[in-house]
TrEMBL record:
UniProt-listed InterPro entries: F-box-like_dom_sf, F-box_AtFBL13-like, F-box_dom, FBD, FBL13/AtMIF1-like
Organism this protein belongs to: Cajanus cajan (Pigeon pea)
Domain FBD span(s) in chain numbering: 366-440
Name used for this protein in its record: F-box/LRR-repeat protein At3g14710 family
PANTHER family named in the record: F-BOX/RNI SUPERFAMILY PROTEIN-RELATED, F-BOX_RNI_FBD-LIKE DOMAIN PROTEIN
Record CDD domains: F-box_AtFBL13-like
Length: 444
């Protein structure tokens, strides 16, 4: 009988460590009992995952056991280059100093992909200096309630993806020169996402990311009563997808924004800040003016905690220039709205010459439902978007009595068959059974 050879055990520790990286970290450590050859192999694994909710041998580790396990791993792990490291603390409550020590130890390694998810840790002060000095980072995910001190300048040359959640960003030093912008430079960054973060820096933050493709930020209501008027400037000449959710307490300045093709703007208004409704209207206008090259736009207005048409109306009433002075959205083909006045809707449609899809989410302009009785369309050119508008009005104006289509002067001398156009308009579905459709010329 031929004796089986143990070929695997003869492999180099670095190769065995790489193989063990594909199984859970705890199971990788358990291989140390196989033989004397395997006692130290686990110290070379390249993927580390610490999760206090994971079952071990059918049981969940006690908090003391888990703390001992993490401490032992970080102390004895000898591979200075870590491809992926995940720290998920969602089951037990931990002392903030203990967690900070773990994170500091992790960041001092040459780690590429870092994922930290923490539920329970009081007043956690993130080791910011170590983070911004970890130039090996390629992917960074931070999901926790903590304070992150941002230096006046930082460059993470290999970072390609950032996801932040629950972070409070503050200036690194109270004695910093507040007239000087904070500069965050990410030469290879492609995705930046931040949700539920508080931007409490006194200076403007400049994000320089020449390869950035997606930027998504949701700034929720600050727990602090102190107002911070700093702005966020994004330099990203290849940005394609832009998403913003918040109350525009911080100005959003998009440099080289002509590349953006898809944009989502969700304005979350606070009823406790009614005094800034007018300014908010202008801020919305300024943000929209920066993304006028988009092909798809979602523009939604919400109130904190509860929906409120009245609050939305205040913004639209105070900031009359939101929609009246906008540039032309020459590429826009898709538009989604949830709260809009008739005047605002018409202005948006007028400034969107190739729009082919309009979505009104949850609500119809109030005048369409209760009061619009007379609709006159002057200078009708028989363009596709004009026909769509006429169709939209007829299908939704519940008490409409009269629609007058006043055609442009030049149509008299064109080859367009106006009788067919009239038949098409007359065939449109009508919400009001009383509506009369009339056709006239501009100079009639």
């Amino acid at each position: 009988m031929v004796e089986a050879k143990d070929i695997i055990s003869k492999l180099h520790d670095s190769i065995l460590g790489y193989i063990l990286s594909f199984i859970p970290t705890m199971e990788a450590v358990h291989t140390s009992v196989l033989s004397t050859r395997w006692i130290h192999v686990w110290k070379s694994i390249t993927n580390l995952k610490f999760d206090d909710s994971v079952l071990c041998c059918g049981k969940r580790m006690q908090k003391e056991q888990f703390v001992c396990f993490v401490n032992t791993m970080l102390l004895h792990h000898v591979n200075s280059s870590v491809q992926s490291l995940s720290l998920c603390l969602t089951w037990y409550h931990y002392d903030s100093s203990q967690v900070s020590a773990w994170i500091s130890s992790i960041l001092k390694r040459v780690v590429q992909n870092l994922h930290i998810h923490i539920h329970y840790a009081d007043k956690l002060l993130f080791p910011s200096q170590t983070l911004f000095g970890c130039i090996s980072l390629v992917q960074l995910v931070l999901q926790m309630r903590c304070t992150l001190s941002v230096p006046i300048f930082s460059c993470l040359p290999n970072l390609q993806s950032v996801t932040l959640s629950g972070i409070m960003l503050v200036s690194e030093s109270e004695s910093s020169n507040y007239s000087e912008d904070i500069i965050l430079r990410f030469p290879l960054l492609k995705v930046f996402e931040a949700r539920g973060c508080e931007w409490q820096t006194k200076q403007n933050i400049n994000i320089e990311a020449p390869l950035l493709e997606r930027f998504s930020i949701a700034i929720w209501r600050s727990l602090s009563n102190e107002s911070h008027k700093s702005g966020i400037k994004i330099f990203a000449p290849y940005l394609v997808d832009f998403s913003y959710e918040g109350d525009l307490e911080q100005d959003i300045i998009l440099l080289n924004s002509s590349s953006i093709r898809s944009a989502s703007v969700v304005i979350v208004m606070d009823e406790d800040k009614m005094d800034r409704m007018e300014n908010l209207g202008f801020q919305v206008h300024n943000l929209l003016a920066q993304i006028c090259e988009v092909e798809q736009l979602k523009l939604l207005f919400y109130k904190v905690f509860f929906f409120s048409f009245f609050l939305v109306k205040q913004v639209l009433m105070h900031g009359t220039s939101i929609f009246t002075n906008l540039p032309v959205f020459g590429r826009l083909t898709y538009l989604q709205l949830n709260e809009v006045s008739c005047e605002a809707l018409l202005n948006l449609l007028h400034n969107s010459p190739i729009l082919n899809t309009l979505v009104l989410q949850n609500v119809m302009p109030q005048c369409f439902v209760s009061s619009l009785k007379d609709f006159e369309f002057r200078g009708f050119n028989v363009h596709e978007h004009e026909l769509l508008l006429a169709k939209f009005v007829l299908a939704n104006a519940a008490v409409l009595e009269r629609m007058n289509i006043c055609t442009a002067f030049w149509l008299r001398y064109s080859n367009i068959d106006m009788e067919k156009v009239k038949e098409q308009i007359l065939s449109f579905p009508k919400c009001s059974s009383l509506v009369m459709i009339e056709f006239s010329h501009v100079n009639d």
